[in-house]
Amino acid sequence: MKETINVPQQTFKHSLKRTLNLEIVDALFYCIELRDKLTATHSVVMAHYSYELAKIYDQEQSLLYYAGSLIHDIGKIAMDDRILKGNIRLSADERTCLWEHVKSGERILERLPLPAIVKDIVRYHHERFDGSGYIKGLKGYSIPLCGRIAAVSDTFSAIICGRPYQNLRSAREAINIMKRDTHLFDAAILQSLTIIVEKEINNNRVISESKVPWNMLQDTEKIK
Hints:
By secondary structure, the protein is mostly helical.
């Protein structure tokens, strides 16, 4: 059973409900959860770190970073099980199919009444600072801030939550792996994540696949 790390709940949920259509985000996340539990866990962990980073770089919009990260992989609900849940490394052709989840996510959200930041996190979370990412191939600061934050939090979460074909890693291992590939990320944001993670380690609150943050969108029916 996973251990849940609590955060201030009612304050967050009331603020988020005033900011966007909470029911839409909650419903989309429920679709992800039904489709694949590992993707759902990864999304909650990513949302936690996107929120913490956004409090540093874009505090007024930090709630939207949480919501966007929670549903950043919504396009994966259309993905074949062989690719989504396979226990061997993907071939080049399969990786190309995997990339399609970004386009699928864009199409799912394009007509929904959600803020631009939420949609942009879905659109840009696989862009890389050196221009090697997808789908747009944007480089450096041409990647919107929300995309640069999402790239860092998404990668970190993917490493510590593991994949069907890859063992999960500790938080420090994940940071070290990302620092070896520092050209892929906004260096300032990666350094901020390092500080956040070190504080969590020192306070015995480090996140892992078995010790996840509380999903701040739970019990939305109780929000008035």
